[in-house]
Design goal:
The chain is built from ten helices and twelve strands. The chain starts with a strand and ends in a 7-residue tail after the last strand. The strands form two sheets. Strands 6-7-8-3-9-10-12-11 form an eight-stranded mixed sheet, with helices on both faces. The chain has a four-stranded antiparallel sheet with strand order 2-1-4-5, with helices on one face. It is of the alpha/beta class. Helix content is 30%, strand content 25%. It is globular.
Amino acid sequence: MVTTSLLSIRDLRAYYMLGDTVVKAVDGVSFDVGEGEIAAIVGESGSGKSTLGLAIIKLLPYPGRITGGKVLFRGVDLVDLPEEEMAKIRGREISAVFQDPLTSLDPLIRVGDQIVETIMSHFDLSKDEARKQAEKYMKLVGIPPQRFYDYPHQFSGGMRQRIMIAMAIATRPKLIIADEPTTALDVIVQAQIMELFKKLKEELGLSIILITHDIALAMEVADKIGVMYAGHLMEYGSSIDIYEKPVHPYTRGLLEAVPNIETSDMKLRYIKGNPPDLASPPSGCRFHPRCPYRMDICSSKEPPTVLLNGRIVKCFLVGEE
């Protein structure tokens, strides 16, 4: 069991300042990611998942900014690091894989040369040495080295995503943040990409933060699951515990919405209502307008984040252990 924390996020707040309007996309989030661990962050669109990933590596687009909290990576608070120091960590020790590889790859440069460029920007190697490294990582992600000289348009969506993963691991990072890496891929390719992440975790000892709206997909590979809603982390714990006994009503709703082909009841279930506007979130618990278990206190007071049998839960239905 993993016990050493590689990444510790404490009360992280990332807001978008739109004139007089403040969009609280990440609002007081805390969790740990252990060494050699896959942690999935799941939730509906607009829950703050992608903003969380960008905030960790300090790549928030304007007018977003981190307004509070800590991001402790190997004991160093990234929030306080000047950009010059952060640039040495970003891409080298923490890499990112984004959801659209076609827009992330340069269409005019051969894919192998793009990996070589990534390697040479972080290591003092000759071009020949970097090419050998690039071919090794291409092979590791399942792409024949013979395709080194092909252009991005000559690859399928799944193969382009493998190229992006090869670029991400070519710097030998400790942590990869994968933001919706299987969007627009068919289910077979999705499964292949997830299996690739598991393989890289086991062979390279990588830690991975997987950001996805698909809780069923996350359950396949993640050691831990974090459930976000309206900028808050509602539940965080081992994937087995959350699958077998979800505690937060929102987590239960997400799991119940996953179709189960093994049962005769194929009725489609969903969470009624819509996620709130993060510029004016509801008072109290942000999920209370849609929660079937809401109490009077839920609309007036924000629930505390408590520890329950090793997992984090933000709900009045539970008490501290």
